[in-house]
């Protein structure tokens, strides 16, 4: 029945979206949900193995910047809310070619907002339906040795990816102010966990180590990121979508600041325990011996750290999983995938 209230999740075949959908449909087994995803290089339907056979899960392949396709979703289904994960998400690719980032992250968000607004206005439900924009702490720019990003920190994006995400947030806010739409934004720090694309830092460290190849770390390796376990992020998103205040932003951090080289060392220590047989193929004592420093990323932000007091105090969120155990589970998951590929 197409007229059952249905949640529209975009970009749900990617890393965070697929973890979110799996979590959400397990928790709310009655909830109808559409995953609308273009299946770019970053989208994998395999990421949804655990839910693809559920009657409540529906996949539609489409581009959020394609007005016709997006409008069709809104006219064919009773969309009770939107959670927009869909994005071009890799900073290095945005430095090479910003165009796709503007098309998806800015124009695509605009198409979704317009379709939601037009449909909900016609149905007389504009203020009862929520548009939740998934954003990043990278919009705030780069920090020195101290301080954290707050929700009121001015946007200061430093690369085309973060600029496009900042632009999207401004559009989302404008739809809230101008048309009275119920919009909410969440800005999270770097996520880690299963199902992340192989191009990102932690999967790269693991795959290079297991291939016994140099593990590339940009510059001096002292860039700091605040790591958030993806399942803790998903629980925060559920709370914000259901209980966050309209037109507000919520920062989500992990409280786990690590330099990139510290992180690489921790991943290697876990691999030393999980995969001693690979390490012993060559004469190295630890996978750490494979860490090498490469030419720095252009405009590489030095430090990100997120203050998420607002989320903790107003919505009662806190991370469930310690950094250590989240990292162990993550490395274990990739090592398992590695076994499956190489068997
Ligand atoms: P990802 O690259 O793993 O997944 C992105 C998904 O969006 C893919 O499935 C892709 O096919 C889809 N997509 C891309 N362009 C599309 C389009 N035009 N139309 C429809 N679908 C499209 O990204 P991720 O790491 O899961 O990030 C999800 C969201 O969270 C993004 O908005 C990102 O900016 C944000 N975010 C990510 C992190 C992180 O650490 N990964 C941190 C903070 C915020």
UniProtKB/TrEMBL annotation:
It comes from the Bacteria. Its EC number is 4.2.1.46. Keywords: Lyase, Membrane, NAD, Transmembrane, Transmembrane helix. Gene3D superfamilies: NAD(P)-binding Rossmann-like Domain, UDP-galactose 4-epimerase, domain 1. One of its GO terms (biological process) is nucleotide-sugar metabolic process. It catalyses: dTDP-alpha-D-glucose = dTDP-4-dehydro-6-deoxy-alpha-D-glucose + H2O. Residues 8-329 form the NAD(P)-binding domain. InterPro entries: dTDP_Gluc_deHydtase, NAD(P)-bd_dom, NAD(P)-bd_dom_sf. GO terms for molecular function: dTDP-glucose 4,6-dehydratase activity. Its cofactor is NAD(+). The chain crosses the membrane at residues 6-25. Belongs to the NAD(P)-dependent epimerase/dehydratase family. dTDP-glucose dehydratase subfamily. NCBIfam families: dTDP_gluc_dehyt. This is dTDP-glucose 4,6-dehydratase. It comes from Virgibacillus oceani. The lineage of its organism: Bacteria, Bacillati, Bacillota, Bacilli, Bacillales.
């Amino acid at each position: 029945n197409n007229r059952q209230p249905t949640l529209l999740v975009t970009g749900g075949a990617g890393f965070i979206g697929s973890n979110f959908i799996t979590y959400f449909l397990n928790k709310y087994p009655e909830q109808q949900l559409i995953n609308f995803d273009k299946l770019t290089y970053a989208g994998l339907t395999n990421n949804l193995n655990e839910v693809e056979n559920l009657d409540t899960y529906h996949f539609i392949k489409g581009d959020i910047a394609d007005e016709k396709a997006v409008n069709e979703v809104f006219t064919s289904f009773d969309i009770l809310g939107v959670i927009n994960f869909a994005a071009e998400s890799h900073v290095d690719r945005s430095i090479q070619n910003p165009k796709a980032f503007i098309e998806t992250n800015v124009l695509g968000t605009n198409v979704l907002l317009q379709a939601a607004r037009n449909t909900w206005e016609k149905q007389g439900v504009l203020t009862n339906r929520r548009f939740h924009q998934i954003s990043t702490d990278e919009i705030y720019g780069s920090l020195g040795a101290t301080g954290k990003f707050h929700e009121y920190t001015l946007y200061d994006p430093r690369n085309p990816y973060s600029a496009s995400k900042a632009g999207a947030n401004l559009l989302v806010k404008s739809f809230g102010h101008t048309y009275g739409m119920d919009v909410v934004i969440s800005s999270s720090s770097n996520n880690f966990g299963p199902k992340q694309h192989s191009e990102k830092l932690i999967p790269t460290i693991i795959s290079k180590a297991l291939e016994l190849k140099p593990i590339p770390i940009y510059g001096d390796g002292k860039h700091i990121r605040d790591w958030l376990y993806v399942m803790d992020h998903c629980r925060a998103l559920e709370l914000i979508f259901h209980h966050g205040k309209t037109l507000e932003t919520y920062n989500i951090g992990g409280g786990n600041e690590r330099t990139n080289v510290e992180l690489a060392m921790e991943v290697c220590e876990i691999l030393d325990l999980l995969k001693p047989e690979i390490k012993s193929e060559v004469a190295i004592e630890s996978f750490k011996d494979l860490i090498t420093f490469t030419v720095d990323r252009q405009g590489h932000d030095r430090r990100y750290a997120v203050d998420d007091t607002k989320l903790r105090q107003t919505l009662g969120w806190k991370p469930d999983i310690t950094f250590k155990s989240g990292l162990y589970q993550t490395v274990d998951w990739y090592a398992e995938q590695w076994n499956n590929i190489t068997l």
